[in-house]
């Protein structure tokens, strides 16, 4: 039983390391995508590109969150299995506590990512609204310019 427990703990530790690496990659991707979004928001002529980028950003972040939630659920199931097995060895208990802490940290990180995504979605919506307003203003100014130009041409004639 102890050997089985040790093997299972090692597997869980490996899983945790993989999750941490995936999380770091996700955070790096999120930062990079945020930078790209910032670059796109500076250009008013790329409204369609920005919308597709925003959609991709939200999809990517959502898939990352789902993956992390799935991994988190897997860890919770493993923790429950370990509880059910009523492990008595002190080493297993320490590993269990360690895994539970890591699980809680992952849960917190998932929550932070979800909050960050919500903020980014709101920011993206604000940017889209502003972009649409600017485009409307531009069209109105073009109409006014054309009207003034026509009036000027009539006056010149």
Automatic annotation (TrEMBL):
GO terms for molecular function: dynein light intermediate chain binding; microtubule binding. One of its GO terms (cellular component) is cytoplasm. GO terms for biological process: cytoplasmic microtubule organization; cytoskeleton-dependent intracellular transport. Keywords: Coiled coil. Residues 58-151 form a coiled coil. The keyword tRNA processing does not apply. This is DAPLE protein. It comes from Thinocorus orbignyianus. The gene is Ccdc88c.
